[in-house]
Amino acid sequence: MSVSQDRLATTGLQARSRRTGGYGQRLLVAASGLLVAGCIAQSVTAGVVAARSAIAFAALIALGELLRLNLPGDREGAPIGTACALAYALLIRVGSVPARHSAFQVVAVAGAGMALGVLPHLAVGRPARTVGMASRLLAVACAAVVFRPLAGTSDIVRHWWAALAVMTALVTVAWLVDVVIAACIRADTLRGRLWVTFTDELRVQGLLGVAVGASALLIAFAAEAMGLVAVAVFLAPLLVTQVAFRRYAGIRATYLQTVRALARVTEIGGYVETGHADRVSRLAVAVGRELGMTEPELLELQYAALIHDIGQLSLQDPIPGGATVLVSPEDQRRIAELGAGVIQQATMLDRVAEIVRRQSDPCGGTSRCPSGPVPGPVPGAPPGQDTDAGQRPARPPLSSRIIRAVNAFDDLVGSSADPGRAAAVVDRLRLDAGAEYDPEVVAALGGIITRRPVVSA
Amino acid sequence: MGRLSRATWLYIGTVVAAAAFVIARSPHQGIPWSRLAVLAVLFLVCESVPTAITPRRVAWSPGYAATLASVVLLGPFGAALTGVVSLFSLRRGPTPPQRIFNGAMYALSAYGAGQVFLALGGTVGVPTGASFPKIIGPFAGAAAAHIVANYGLVAGVLWLTSGADRSQARGRGVLDLRLPLPDFGFAVFGLLIAALWSVVGPFAAILVLIPLYVARWAIAQFADQQRAYEATLRVLCQAVETKDFYTRGHSERVSKGSVMIARAIGMRSERAEAIRFAGMLHDVGKLGVPTKVLQKTGKLTEEEYAAIQLHPMRGLEIIREIGFLDEALAGIMHHHERIDGRGYPMGLAGDEIPEFARVLAVADAFDCMTSTRSYRGARSLAEAITELRRCSGTQFDPAFVDALVAAVEREGWQSPDVPVPPPGEPATAAAHDHDDPVVPLRVMGRR
Asked: Which residue on chain B is closest to A163 by alpha carbon?
């Protein structure tokens, strides 16, 4: 559900990855597919050890894959499935019977369970998301390869603390594998920087990963204490977590929709051209990512870009075409201030309001914008809007600078799909770079425009 | 909590004395003290985390997990001692008398739970594989006893201090007297901890609680986002009202009126919530109507009239993608339909009109009539009610008119103050309001 709603934040992650393919991703999926096939073949020929527990865990993994979870930023996880698969890899005993299944069997069971769990998704026309599955499978395989040979040794069996330490380490490793793969894929498809996408993944997946790891240990130990029957019961804490995350992701998506509705207000009211807010936000996010902004920053940038023209609502008559780039700097500033005033009423959006307020400030007056002639505070801000209007820092925040340049770009290009015109407009912005626009932003914008032949797509 | 009544002191004293009595009377030998220490620390951790953020229906009181694990692992006496620890809760909220009461209350109810556990045939000690599923019955009984005793004791203190200082008593966090089902959920985790104790010892507690604390984090995030979302919706409806000075606050009041009707007819709470949003946003489509039409002084041309009639559709266009209940969207789209079928935009009649739309129509007209417009003063509540009744059955659904009238008579209605135009505002004043049932829109060429 919220996949499509959160998509804007990722500028069509799926669409892009489908279009440009991504050899790395295909390789990943193919390799893990082969791995599963090989392991299944091996397990069948060598004979399945402890078939009952294998079937039970495969069923739980399938259930977990069925109950996938949407996470912020068009991510998807299967926390319950991952926890069960890891638990199967880390199993020492079921009841009093030692678990002797091999790493091959772990991969086979996990792969079979995932394949089973994805079928209902395919049946109702949802994407399979094979890349995520492959990455989860590899993480589980890493843990299994290390732990299965150890599971029979006497030290692990005798001392629970030794087992706990080894298991904790392996769960951490498995989680890191998953995070690193996800970060590489995101860096590849979104043209982000690897380090930035890695920290983004850590931020989004961090706490959930801890919960998954703890639950994996819980299930592995529970099987020892109470046998297979009770294993499902021990999923309860993780289920609570999953429900909480689901609600969180749901309200986040609704929130983004509301901000977009706010953006449509100016369009329906005839203040700006239809599609302007949407185009500016897409392009601004692309520029922001190019410049290495993190995901929370990008989200704020996206919100601010969507509603950057809200101040125009207070105008008596719409500006012709809604192009703020064509009105005087004073009017630009007034619109920005009014808009920030409106946004500030939603106290949670304070930083977004600040971004919108500063979008009218030219990028002048610091060493990073060499030719900027305007040092110090910007004069002429309307009184009574803001207490620190007189003592603004010289340089607007990066998000404001991005919106300023991208807004100007879109005002001048409009919905035209002509690459020549887009290039010409970027050249025109380059002339003003330094004084009006941030040169880095304009350079990034130029790079994106040349890479993407059809801007309005 | 400085001035407590004598009855309250007596009550607290009784609870403390009872707790002290059961603890002192119990046999002290045979208690594994190290296990008790671990469980006490666990309970302290659970109780010390602030519980301020609990969105509706998600209660967070993991303390039960620790005390009920103690019931199984230590027996009644040990469970009582675990409960006493809440004296030392790291939370800054409770005052000393509150702490003492909490400690005694937890001790007493945990002790009771322990006795129930034994009475139903449970065995104290680390459960083994053979204990299942026999242990489940006694454990459920113990959990029920614990929760009931806890709520009962707290309800007593609330009852004695209510009126005096309810908010302070609420600071405990457990005191919301609603159905304690979530607490049962946490009680189950007590059993999980006890069951795992045989394999990993105290780590059982950590492994069980980690996912729950992550859940708690997610719920906190959820609450933040929820607040942000509602604030943004409010911005959305204020954006509408910047266009027309006289209608300021109209959306909020229509929202309130709709909820009053919804409650009066016994709507479910989720639907009442949806109609609250629908009321806030019902006129959002007016943004698509040119300001000069909204504020026009003379008769409207046919085109201008059409522009006004289009506003529900425009509203739909703006908010269509927000994940509301579909009912709210239908309500906004049809809130100007009339029962006799002469409304707009579709000309639906009678039951064809969605229920939400019929509710909104009544609240909308009622607020319009009781507010001041540039071309007339506000009507009194009695006049407005008479007018609603006059149009009942032709324009409005009689059932909802009755519901609103009843609700207004019961709860009252806050009519807005007479607006004072700000100095910068244009002098032109609208001669009509599309919501006004008494002064219909005047269109050129029509009578």
From this structure: B200
